[in-house]
Each structure stands twice: as structure tokens, then as C-alpha cells.
Amino acid sequence: MRAKRKTESEPIAKSLASRGKVQTKHPPKHALPSIPADQALSFLRETRGISTWTARDMANSLRIGGGEAKRAIAVLEMQGYVNPFKSDQFMTTSAGESVSHSQAPRYTRDRIDRALAVLRSRIAEINRDDGAPFRITQAVAFGDFLSERTRFQPVEIGIQLQPRKPAAISIARKGATREQFLKQLRDKAAVVQFRRYQTWMSARSHQNLLR
Known about the structure:
- The chain is an alpha+beta fold.
- The chain has helices spanning 12-17, 37-46, 55-62, 66-78, 94-100, 109-128, 167-174, 178-186, 200-203; strands at 53-54, 82-84, 89-92, 134-142, 155-163, 192-196, 207-208.
- The protein has nine helices and seven strands.
């Protein structure tokens, strides 16, 4: 029997240990953060291009409590993805940049804003089109573009698709798989990257592209 596909990422400690560097010491259960690994890594991506950051920065970005942020940082530090710098300041290591798949920020605010405006318009148009193979039920944008910096990485878009009924007929008629549909939606906009929607994406700081 085929195993069910996971819809949410694993807790941070378990997941990060399986991604590369294995934990050599296990903290007590009460010290483990409850946020998913992918949520923590979304913050690590945001730190690309800045020298240091704080637990408060993580808490504000992910909209979690200060204690939860400190527990997440402790696990990231244990894995070698962050290093302490000064009092309550941390640096993301090269291993942290690698595991989070961050990129050098190079896009301007204007480029980001124009791409999001076009994408928002396309989403609205698709959702009005009864002949489209899918309806977009979630579209949340997050990443370092939410900061006050001047250069940014590609915007991450958590997206959820619902096949229209009858789905099989519609998809066959349009010749569109989910991947093809997203490729057409993205077009040639290198400044956006689609990710399968997870509930933590709406819990953290974001822009809702359906509004």
C-alpha cells in the first residue's frame, strides 16, 4: 500500500537531523520547538545578506513567541546552521545558507512589486474562469521582500490548487498537469518561486494574494 503524502513538514528537530548534519546531542523534549522545520528554514532564507539577527527578528517574522524562537535557534545552532555572535545576536552559517537554499538578494523593490501585481491579477483572472483546470484556493507571498532592505531574493509563494469539477475532463481538455499549470502561471517571472501551501505559511508574516 502506498504511503500517504505528508501535507505538513516535520517538527524542526527531527526534520533537520535528517537533512544533513546529524545531531550529536538531543535536548530534552520540553526544550524542543513545535514549529515545522520548513517554517524555521523560511526565516533562515530571509537572513541571507544581513550580518546578524536576533531571536526577536525570528519571532516577528514567523509570528511566534520569544521562547519558541529561542528554542528553534537552539536546535539550528546544534545543527551548525547558526552561530552566536553577541548577546542575543546570531549569524547564519554557510551550512545554514545551504540547507535553507537561500540566494544572494539581487532584485529591486520595483521588480518585486511589479511581479506580484501581475501574479495577483493572473490569479484573480484564473479564479473567474470556470474553464480553468484548477481554482487557486491559497496564495500567500513571503520572504525577505517584507523587510525594508533594498535588494531581495525571489518571493516565495505558498499556493494551493483545487481541481475544478469534473477535474479529469477539464485537465484532459486543457492538457494541464499541476506542474504545467504552475509553470504557465509563473510565466517567465524569475522573481517568484511556488511552494506547496502549508498552514504555517499563513501563520507567519505574509501577503495574501487572493485579496
